[in-house]
Amino acid sequence: LTRDAPPTHFILKIESFSSLASTTLKRYESCEFDAGDYKWRLALYPNGDQNRDYGKDHISLYLVLDKSCRNLKKEISVTFSLFVYDNIRDKYLSVQGVSCFNAMRSLNLFNSPSNGYIISNTCIFGAEVFVIDKTAKGQCLSMVACKPDSYNKFIIWKIENFSALEDKWYSSEMLKVEGYYWKIGLAPKGEATGKGTSLSLYLHSDDANSSVPAGTVVVAEYKLRVVNQINGNHKEFVSTASFSASNRAMGKHQFLDLSNLNKSTGYLVNDTCIVEAEVCVLGSAKTCI
């Protein structure tokens, strides 16, 4: 793989590379560098690592954990890349997730100026190291088919003396579906974009019963409805949403225009409004390691 951006954590520039290769020094180890709260070094074999079959006649480059970090008595999981700079194409050739460049290029190809790795007897190597945090958390989402009888469970909320309701939140009784508790939330004078103009209606996962605890997400399909008590032409909203401890209410700010709450429309009869909710739990996700 090649890329334009230089290595993030360390660059090793070697001038007069041919002089280094002509000495009896088999291995050159760079200064230390920091990555992921550990110290590392690059180990370069200018004539290849002769102790390994695949290192002979190839440039060999290794990522090495510094001696100061070798007595930690624990395993360190990392993902890393080693680089060599192509001067002609102005690109960095990288190898990811392996410990060395042994089989990358033969010494003949590497030393040839026409390939761009050595220009004016100078070459550049590099490294990126990312330590994997084994304490990282994950999430498991388990979906289920919506049962045919799930929508037979619904809240029917008959609100009498509706015109006397104040400009605040009201809640219905609870409904238990698949182990989770739900209720209808209603703002008779509107909320947010529906303030003063609309009836706002929501489905809530119930707070008091910790229906959806922290770290859990419940996916549910739901229906909210204002019943037309005259002709059955109900005002209905259907949606699917994810409910969590930080996102317990879903619905519409502008559910029904307040001007439609009267006897002639059928939504308010004898100062009584009937609101319903149906819930079908489709799945849940829980935090896991």
TrEMBL record:
Residues of the MATH domain: 7-129, 152-279
Matching CDD domains: MATH
SMART domains, sorted: MATH (SM00061)
InterPro entries: MATH/TRAF_dom, TRAF-like
PANTHER family tied to this protein: ANKYRIN REPEAT-CONTAINING PROTEIN-RELATED, TRAF-LIKE FAMILY PROTEIN
Protein name: MATH domain-containing protein
Organism of derivation: Aquilegia coerulea (Rocky mountain columbine)
Lineage: Eukaryota, Viridiplantae, Streptophyta, Embryophyta, Tracheophyta
